[in-house]
């Protein structure tokens, strides 16, 4: 019960002043002048004032509110080290039991620090979770917070103001832990393929010392060197970027005796390989309507350095004039096809036929260039079916098909073959999904026989139109029509000549993204995405090897022709190995060199400033014989001490909720009337004597 007095005036305060002030002045004047009956006048005035003010005795029934306690469990990956997770579970269970004995506490349990499936940031963020718990609680009702953590918290506020609630921290782990780690100090994001890239790294050890240790260096899963590093010193490292696209550089050091974890004994750097400008040699035959199509496309590609020569003199104009006298620029045949042929990434013959311009021996050099890893594209026209065809030279050893001598001249829609629908060069080509395809017709096709390699496009009568073939270490492409310029000119709506031509050129130059058989994997938050590009209809399953060595089978599902994919949520940060048949790849899941494993030794130092600012405490959970020691819980006042040797205190609140009010008028009814009459009667009686 809560008793209090309130006034409920019968008149407004203005009228009360008008009535009572003159009476009060008269009563005071009589008292000052010592008139007879002045005391009775004051008593009568007081009785009248009380009657008008109407005092009421209130009896309030209130329900006390509970103080809110936040119980926060650190569930970050560093808590998986040793017995930390088991200690956390035991401490949380015991704390809930102890807090359950106090009805004045509203306990809110929250688990924080888990890695998100989509967020690449992996940090222990306990204070963000704490803010969420107290978002709907007024400051007067916050009893305090208890954090069960290893002390490696990454969102500790610099300053805590406006709260009197103690924040206590119970630290898992042991006091004398040791950890060795390696990390990159400087790791460039990009590097040029086949060129050295300079990086720096550092090996640290909580045990101190400046011993030398071996550091294994791997690039894309293959060990390339073993470096000698001094603990604590920044070391330099040079690697060669092996391929375009994503490359994974990994450093690894051996574990030492007594080390709490080997997770941070590896460091990862992701380097995107950039190829230097590709060099392309384009040799065009006599001028024709589509001569500039290949030139314009290659010139518009910033990644291509183009060398282009056109043979201007047709065969029917042969005479005794020396070739050098007819050329705008002397054709440097020896320099191009003997001395610097290996400097080119791709050679294109666009409607070229054999002439005396190129010695017959040089065709053998070109065939050898292909065999040793070069790329050759034949954009064939009617010349390829004629007597001066380059198929009648030593180059025939590198060609995927020989002509029949037929030139088919009729309108047709270029179509994808079954192979072409899955091949990365032609797969998903804009307009190919319809029948007939949503692009213009062509009107010429060169007949061939017994093609080698993969026929990805076809013409009338299912005749081969585009052939892609591997020859030795190199690649050869053959386009059996010179009508692609119709797409470029927009005839009948045109067609996707830019996409098609560019894909052909880059496949020949071994662009990784255009490989027929390609397995890739990538991390998206804590999700591992797997993508298989294959010509097979049955991809099988992908085998995933986690950083801890666990094997997981991932079922690949069809996404589109030639594309299969799988996604899986994982709970480990690190490097995953993915395999499918002979294909293997690596993927890093989670943040690279995550802050969660930058420091893994449990510590009290990070949370001590918070405890000092709030009146809380920081203490370890470790007890005797490997057990834990959870301090007692004591409710304390708002101004009392909140921690002791073996106990921690939580504030109690004085806030309450009003449920009902009982009113008892003190100057109402017969009692009030009698008192008023008594006062007035006494005044008259005294005045009458």
UniProtKB/TrEMBL annotation:
Transmembrane segments: 12-33, 40-58, 664-685
InterPro entries found in the cross-reference section: Class_I_gatase-like, GATase1-like
Domain Putative glutamine amidotransferase positions: 364-488
Gene3D superfamilies, sorted: 3.40.50.880
Keywords for the protein's UniProt record, in alphabetical order: Glutamine amidotransferase, Membrane, Transmembrane, Transmembrane helix
Pfam families in alphabetical order: GATase1_like (PF07090)
PANTHER family per UniProt: BLL2462 PROTEIN
Name under which the protein is recorded: Glutamine amidotransferase
């Amino acid at each position: 019960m809560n008793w209090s007095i309130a006034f409920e005036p019968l008149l407004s305060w203005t009228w009360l002043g008008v009535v009572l002030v003159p009476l009060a002045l008269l009563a005071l004047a009589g008292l000052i002048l010592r008139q007879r009956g002045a005391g009775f006048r004051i008593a009568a005035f007081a009785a009248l004032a009380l009657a008008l003010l109407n005092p009421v005795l209130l009896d309030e029934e209130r329900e006390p509110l509970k103080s809110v306690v936040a119980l926060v469990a650190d569930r970050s990956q560093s808590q998986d080290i040793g017995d930390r997770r088991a200690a956390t579970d035991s401490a949380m269970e015991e704390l809930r039991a102890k807090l359950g004995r106090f009805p004045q506490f509203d306990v809110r349990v929250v688990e924080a620090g888990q890695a998100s499936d989509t967020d690449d940031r992996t940090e222990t963020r306990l204070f963000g979770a704490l803010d969420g718990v107290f978002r709907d609680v007024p400051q007067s009702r916050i009893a305090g917070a208890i954090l069960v953590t290893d002390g490696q918290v990454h969102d500790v506020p610099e300053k805590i103001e406006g709260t009197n609630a103690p924040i206590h921290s119970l630290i898992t782990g042991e006091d004398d832990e040791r950890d060795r780690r390696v990390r990159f100090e400087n790791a460039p994001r990009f590097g040029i393929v086949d060129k050295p890239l300079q990086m720096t790294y550092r090996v640290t050890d909580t045990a101190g010392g400046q011993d030398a240790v071996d550091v294994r260096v791997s690039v894309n899963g293959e060990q390339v060197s073993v470096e000698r590093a001094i603990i604590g010193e920044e070391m330099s490292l040079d690697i060669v970027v092996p391929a375009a696209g994503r490359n994974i550089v990994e450093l690894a050091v051996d574990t030492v005796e007594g080390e709490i974890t080997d997770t941070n004994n590896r460091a990862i750097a992701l380097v995107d390989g950039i190829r230097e400008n590709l060099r392309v040699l384009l040799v065009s035959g006599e001028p024709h309507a589509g001569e500039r199509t290949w030139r314009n496309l290659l010139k518009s590609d910033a990644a291509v350095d183009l060398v282009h020569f056109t043979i201007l003199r047709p065969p029917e104009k042969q005479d005794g004039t020396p070739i050098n006298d007819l050329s705008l620029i002397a054709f440097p045949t020896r320099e191009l096809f003997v001395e610097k042929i290996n400097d080119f990434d791709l050679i294109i013959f666009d409607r070229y036929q054999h002439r005396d311009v190129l010695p017959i021996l040089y065709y053998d050099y070109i065939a050898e260039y292909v065999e040793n890893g070069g790329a050759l594209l034949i954009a064939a026209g009617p010349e390829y079916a004629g007597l001066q065809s380059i198929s009648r030279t030593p180059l025939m050893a590198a060609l995927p098909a020989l002509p029949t001598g037929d030139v088919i001249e009729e309108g047709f829609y270029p179509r994808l073959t079954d192979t072409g629908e899955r091949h990365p060069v032609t797969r998903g080509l804009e307009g190919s999904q319809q029948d007939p395809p949503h692009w213009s017709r062509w009107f010429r096709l060169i007949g061939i026989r017994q093609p080698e390699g993969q026929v990805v496009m076809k013409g009338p009568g299912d005749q081969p139109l585009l052939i892609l073939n591997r020859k030795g270490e190199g690649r050869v492409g053959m386009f059996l029509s010179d009508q692609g310029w119709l797409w470029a000119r927009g005839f009948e709506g045109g067609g996707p000549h830019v996409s098609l031509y560019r894909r052909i050129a880059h496949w020949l130059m071994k662009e990784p993204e255009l490989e027929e058989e390609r397995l890739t994997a990538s991390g998206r938050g804590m999700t591992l995405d797997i993508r298989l590009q294959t010509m097979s209809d049955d991809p099988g399953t992908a085998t995933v090897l986690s950083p801890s060595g666990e094997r997981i089978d991932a079922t690949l599902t069809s996404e589109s022709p030639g594309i299969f994919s799988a996604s899986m949520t994982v709970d480990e940060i690190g490097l995953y190995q993915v395999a499918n048949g002979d294909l293997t790849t690596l993927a890093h899941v989670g943040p690279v060199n995550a802050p969660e494993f930058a420091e893994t030794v449990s510590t009290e130092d990070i949370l001590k400033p918070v405890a000092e600012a709030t009146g809380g405490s920081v203490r370890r959970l470790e007890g005797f014989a490997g057990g834990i020691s959870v301090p007692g819980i004591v409710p304390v006042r708002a101004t009392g001490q909140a921690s002791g040797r073996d106990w921690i205190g939580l504030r109690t609140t004085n806030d309450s909720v009003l449920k009902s009010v009982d009113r008892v008028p003190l100057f109402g009814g017969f009692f009030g009337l009698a008192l008023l009459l008594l006062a007035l009667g006494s005044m008259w009686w005294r005045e009458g004597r």
